[in-house]
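Marked as duplicate of an earlier ticket. Keeping the data here for the record.
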Amino acid sequence: MSKEFIKDPGNLALLLEQADPADLDILVDYITDNGKGRISLNNDVSARLIKCKERQAYTDGDRKLVGKEILAFGGNTLSNVYRDVRRTLSTGSLLDKVLPDTGESVPYEEVVKDVASHLKVAFDKKDDVLIVEDALMRKLMRDAFERMSAEERADILRSLGVTDLSLMGAAATAAVIAAGRAGGFATFQLTLIVANALSRALLGRGLPLTVNAAAVRTLGIALGPIAWAVTGAWGLADMASPAYRVTVPCVVQIAYMRQKAIAAASTQTCGACGASNEHDARFCSKCGAAMEGH
């Protein structure tokens, strides 16, 4: 597996080049409205992407097309921002920072930051894609925690390896956020939980079970509160632009796909218990079994 996508997180094509077809299927469903098509999506493009999903195969050109359409929808949302600014300003430096209404696509970094701003995520304009994606996932999880029962919160904490379950309020939220910031497999699990809940809410099905056993155990956790946290913010303003109906779920899915790829490149799964370990570990940190290849 190439690791170039880690060095250049703003390059969406590098990530899509090695994505699993089943994960691309989720993106296709978001882009095509579960196969029903969209007014702003070319019919030929829609038919091509749906065909890829049906045959479970994506050529290099098909993968590039998925990325191109996501960026095009992102360009639509930023064009709307530009039009709103033009209504209130005739001159000024602010106009130089938004996209003219050209219909062209934008860099993926701008799409991620636009989605994060729409969902009221705090980030610095200089932050790269990885940092903004992480902030987005942690914000959605924090919002979801406010609607979880104590039992659901405890399940989330256990899945992320947090053992102190004595406090289920603000301290529990802080523990989840801290676990995500710790990086590694905990960050992957956090994105998996959020992306799976959103997929179930919008598409009626969860993510494909092409992940290791330790990750699979998190898939059914607190689906309702997390789905509400995402779709509540996603739908209140009717997306301000219909394009947000594509960019918001796609950004969440891509954040998951990125963390999944990072985990695959930097960790290995214990064949005995399913726990995730460092890539060069000789013995499982959880059960002590010898790792394959060592």
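See parent ticket for discussion. The two ends are 20 Å apart (CA to CA).
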